[in-house]
């Protein structure tokens, strides 16, 4: 069964949205294989966001991601990588359609503020494998 890595980001945790977001995952029928609250190191985030290092917004992205705890997890299910991306909606909350998590819950970015979009999901099979290994290491065995 396909697996993906997901997060509820600090804005989602701080605004009390974990329950509503997890409810959507359960309602959609994806299996939650792993779930953990974490305060990641800068090194871990640097590795996670390696494709964005050097972007002008990168320092504020890291500050935002270190501003509070994250909920990280692994989902499994049919086509879960693409389906979870569809459920999340567009990266920028101002473009995210109503009905998506970002479209329903995330707030449009203000000038010079980080883009806070509540959730993360791996964008390909390769990145799902890489991110599951990065965040959960050996802890990905099926727990039933
Ligand atoms: P996604 O989270 O939809 O996979 P991404 O991987 O391109 O998008 O970017 C990772 C995060 O970086 C994204 O959730 C928010 C931030 N980000 C991306 N593009 C940005 C931009 N143009 N300005 C500010 N923040 C941005
Ligand atoms: Mg991404």
Automatic annotation (TrEMBL):
It catalyses: a ribonucleoside 5'-diphosphate + ATP = a ribonucleoside 5'-triphosphate + ADP; a 2'-deoxyribonucleoside 5'-diphosphate + ATP = a 2'-deoxyribonucleoside 5'-triphosphate + ADP. GO terms for molecular function: ATP binding; metal ion binding; nucleoside diphosphate kinase activity. PROSITE patterns: NDPK, NDPK_LIKE. GO terms for cellular component: cytoplasm. Gene3D superfamilies: Nucleoside diphosphate kinase-like domain (3.30.70.141). CDD domains: NDPk_I. ATP binds at residues 9, 57, 85, 91, 102, 112, 117. Keywords: ATP-binding, Cytoplasm, Kinase, Magnesium, Metal-binding, Nucleotide metabolism, Nucleotide-binding, Phosphoprotein, Transferase. Its EC number is 2.7.4.6. SUPFAM superfamilies: Nucleoside diphosphate kinase, NDK. Residues 1-143 form the Nucleoside diphosphate kinase-like domain. It is an enzyme of class 2 (transferase). It is found in: Cytoplasm. Its cofactor is Mg(2+). The active site is at residue 120. The keyword Chloroplast does not apply. This is Nucleoside diphosphate kinase. It comes from Streptococcus pseudoporcinus LQ 940-04.
């Amino acid at each position: 069964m396909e697996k993906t890595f997901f997060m509820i980001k600090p804005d989602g945790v701080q605004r009390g949205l974990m329950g509503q977001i997890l409810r959507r995952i359960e309602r959609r029928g994806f299996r939650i294989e792993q779930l953990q609250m974490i305060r990641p190191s800068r090194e871990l985030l640097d590795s996670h966001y390696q494709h964005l290092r050097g972007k002008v917004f990168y320092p504020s992205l890291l500050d935002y991601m270190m501003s509070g705890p994250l909920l990280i997890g692994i989902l499994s299910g049919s086509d879960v990588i693409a389906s979870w991306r569809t459920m999340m909606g567009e990266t920028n909350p101002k473009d995210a359609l109503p009905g998506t998590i970002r479209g329903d819950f995330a707030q449009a970015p203000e000038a010079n503020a980080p883009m806070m979009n509540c959730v993360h999901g791996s964008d390909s099979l390769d990145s799902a494998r890489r991110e599951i290994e990065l965040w959960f290491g050996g802890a990905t065995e099926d727990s039933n």
